[in-house]
Amino acid sequence: MVANGTPAAPSVKGGRTLYGIPVGILMLDTRFPRIPGDIGNASTWPFPVAYRIVSGATPDLVVRHLRECDLLRNFIDAARELEAQGVGLITTSCGFLILYQDQLQRHVNIPVLTSSLLQIPLVTTLLPRGRTVGVLTVERRSLTPHHLAAAGVAPDFPITIVGLEEVGGHFTSVLLDNLEELDVERAAREHEDAARLLLERDPHVGAIVLECTNMPPYAPRIRALTGLPVFDVTTMVRWAVAALDQGSFRDSQWR
């Protein structure tokens, strides 16, 4: 207690330069536009985030050739830098990095959520009997059983997948060819068309998971069209941050 009877402030420990950043994001090396809602647009987040660009990790390499290229060390080094900076958890800017989930988690001491695909098993438990999970991805042919297995999705899991390249290809081309101009309305219509195709292929879909971290801006259009819950990287990260930071509630209610 200090002289006036108020509690003394607790001592705190330093050791780094920055504080109060709950999320670190490993970014691909890109130049395509990132609109609000995209993981790479800082205005997407209701809390501070720290970014690390992984040099050489182009969209084409990560989506189409990650199992053959040698980028793991680059991602590990960047993840360790974010951990040293003091972030509370790490995510990435591409759902296909699910292939690095186990390796990255082994090399840092904070939670790692590489891909929104990690939500698929959880979403399944939320659905009524007979309902299935649908996935929208940037490129269907590149999303393999290896990616799904890394996300904890069993080979016999009832899942329907549609790629944006199947319904026009503008969105897919801008991202994977790393182009500098995006027609946002055209991309939005492609997401609506992809959602329609998903429900045509499986009328029993009860929820949709967006693989691509550039898809969240279009989630409201998908929800409005389908009436279904839509899960993406932002729903995953906000859920995890809520678990890491409950201080204000606990401090005010349970002293």
The helix/strand class is alpha/beta
Number of distinct helices: 10
Give me the CATH architecture of the largest domain, please: 3-Layer(aba) Sandwich
H/E order of the elements? EEHHEHEHEHEHHEHEHH
At the fold tier of CATH, the topology name of the largest domain is: Rossmann fold
Give the percentage of residues in beta strands: 5-15%
Detail the poorly predicted runs: 249-255
Average pLDDT rating: 93
Computed Rg: 20 Å
- How far apart are the first and last residues' alpha carbons, in Å? 17 Å
Could you explain how this protein is built, in words?
- The chain is of the alpha/beta class.
- It folds into 2 domains: 23-115 and 236-244, Rossmann fold, CATH 3.40.50.1860; 117-232, Rossmann fold.
- The protein has 10 helices and 8 strands.
- The chain has helices spanning 59-64, 72-85, 101-107, 120-126, 145-150, 170-176, 184-201, 219-226, 233-244, 247-253, and strands at 23-27, 49-53, 89-92, 112-113, 132-137, 159-163, 205-210, 230-231.
- The strands form 2 sheets. The protein has a 4-stranded parallel β-sheet, with helices on both faces. The chain has a 4-stranded parallel β-sheet with strand order 6-5-7-8, with helices on both faces.
- Strand 5 (132-137), helix 5 (145-150) and strand 6 form a beta-alpha-beta unit.
- The longest helix is centred in the last third of the chain and has 18 residues, at 184-201.
- It is globular.
- 37% of the residues are buried.
- Mean pLDDT is 93; it is low at 249-255.
